[in-house]
Amino acid sequence: MTAATDAGVRLSRPAVGLPTPPERIVHLGLGAFHRAHQAWYTARASNAAEWGIVAFTGRSRDLVDRLSPQDGLFTLVERAADGDRFDLIPSIVRVEAGDDVPAFVAAVADPQVAILTLTITEAGYRLAPGGSPDLDDPAVASDVDLLHRALTGVAPDDTTNGARPSTALGRVLLALDARRRAGAGPIALVSCDNLPDNGGLVRRALTDLAGRISPDLAEWLGESVSVVSTSIDRITPAIDAHVESHAVLEATGWLDDAPVVTEPFSDWVLSGKFPAGRPDWESAGARFVDEIAPWENRKLWMLNGAHTVLATLGQTRGHTVVSTAIDDQLCRDLVEALWDDDARQLPDFDLADYRAALLERFRNPRIEHRLAQIALDSTTKARLRIVPVALGERAAGRDATGCAAAIAAWMLGVRAGTAPMPDGIEPAAIVDLDASARKALIGALDRRLAEDVGFAPHVADAITALETS
Ligand SMILES: NC(=O)c1ccc[n+]([C@@H]2O[C@H](COP(=O)([O-])OP(=O)(O)OC[C@H]3O[C@@H](n4cnc5c(N)ncnc54)[C@H](O)[C@@H]3O)[C@@H](O)[C@H]2O)c1
Ligand SMILES: O=P(O)(O)OC[C@@H](O)[C@@H](O)[C@H](O)[C@H](O)CO
């Protein structure tokens, strides 16, 4: 195949003169974010030549079809307010479909592989509200049953015994068991999804599931799988790949079917051990810390919490993207009020620079971050990103007016249909947002907050203020 066509250069490693690093990281849930974040950090590490990624998609094989013909190479477009920067990212060396369970099992069981990373979205973990695996979910229950039969009955050299779990954690457990049987040694498991205490949640969920499936796997998991916690940050919106492919061709001469657009800012904080080694991610700007919670809380409460406010209130005021919503004075004041509450719950940080940087990032007019995308599942997001701050502020004897206004904004979004209706609430019951409707909606977020008679009036005041502005 010739690399150059009349239109441009078809991406391939020989065409652009890039080597293929060895497969030492497996990723599940290949999408835009993994490529803008973990793949980018790996490509920039000082020992990048030693670390290649085998990436499995989550639910569709679309990216296999687009990335495999270009040897996993893709262009990362860093979109700043004043222009674009184009980088070719070579760290993904093989792309496979997420439902190719035997290929995933074989990759994780390879003794050269040291790390398994995940970006399967918050919903992909299939956890119940308390954080344990949702055993009422038929797919979870079916995988537990299937894996129990497969893993307690197979010959030691048969890695899958034909088992085809459908859930992400089911596939991870099957693959980890194959690694155990192969004697391939310990591995680090890194969740890169926006979940509070993502490492702790994943460790507890896998331990619970493994305990139901196989005592040998449960024991090995405790000894040989190091679950690392992370705070991950880089705004990476969904894009029109066709439009962006044109922009890449114009700027670079590359024919790229799968570019990614992201912002220039990036941050990665990790906490945990990598028993089989890892890329020198610090050389690319990542940080390792002993205690992840404050970093995670800062990012989830401030960036994602503000996004939830902008997505719910912003849409009711006619905005479609973050960059215009943040310049609407009412939305901006509400975000600042929420951040004031957040700041009191984050005493370890001086947040002036962080707040200024967030505003600048949100304002980037060339990043088209759609509010409708961010508003998905906003009941769970408000529960995880606004409620903990409200509870902390109330426990400290303060009013939590920023959180109350954020919750009021969410209620207006629910009533307007720009945020999803929480389970158990009837649309007709919240038309007036009267005292009982407000109490029901606060209760859908958190029972304790709904019982706090001192908090409800602040929500009522905020609704009045928002409706009359
Ligand atoms: N995009 C961002 O700005 C950003 C920033 C920080 C963190 N994240 C985290 O990364 C996740 C993925 O974001 P993205 O931009 O790559 O999205 P994306 O839509 O480009 O990719 C999501 C990937 O997850 C898979 N997936 C979706 N639902 C799944 C399920 N139920 N089970 C298994 N796999 C599933 C998809 O098939 C796809 O491979 C987010 O949900 C978030 O937790 C994203
Ligand atoms: O679906 P969410 O709310 O977890 O995320 C939507 C965006 O807020 C999120 O993807 C941010 O862009 C990201 O967390 C920035 O690092």
Q: Can you describe this structure?
A:
The chain has two domains: 9-290, NAD(P)-binding Rossmann-like Domain (Rossmann fold, 3-Layer(aba) Sandwich), CATH 3.40.50.720; 294-467, N-(1-d-carboxylethyl)-l-norvaline Dehydrogenase, domain 2, CATH 1.10.1040. The strands form three sheets. Strands 6-3-2-7-8-9-12-13 form an eight-stranded mixed β-sheet. A three-stranded mixed β-sheet has the order 5-4-11, with helices on both faces. The protein is of the alpha/beta class and 469 residues long. The chain contains 21 helices and 13 strands. The structure holds nicotinamide-adenine-dinucleotide and D-Mannitol-1-phosphate (44H). Nicotinamide-adenine-dinucleotide (NAD) binds at residues 29-34, 57-60, 119-124, 168, 193-194, 232, 234-236. D-Mannitol-1-phosphate is lined by residues 194, 233-235, 303-304, 307, 374, 381.
What ligands are attached or bound here?
nicotinamide-adenine-dinucleotide, D-Mannitol-1-phosphate
Total number of beta strands: 13
CATH topology descriptor of the largest domain: Rossmann fold
Number of domains: 2
Helix fraction, binned, reads 40-55%
Question: Which band does the percent of strand residues land in?
Answer: 5-15%
User: What is the typical, i.e. mean, pLDDT?
Assistant: 95
Separation, N- and C-terminal Cα atoms? 62 Å
The spatial strand order of the largest sheet comes to 6-3-2-7-8-9-12-13
Uncertain regions spanning at least 5 consecutive residues: none
Largest sheet: 8 strands, mixed
What value does the Rg take, in angstroms? 23 Å
Structural category is alpha/beta
Given this structure, which CATH class of the largest domain is correct? Answer: Alpha Beta
Number of helices: 21
Based on CA inertia axes, which overall geometry fits? globular
CATH A-level architecture of the largest domain: 3-Layer(aba) Sandwich
What would you give as the CATH superfamily of the largest domain? NAD(P)-binding Rossmann-like Domain
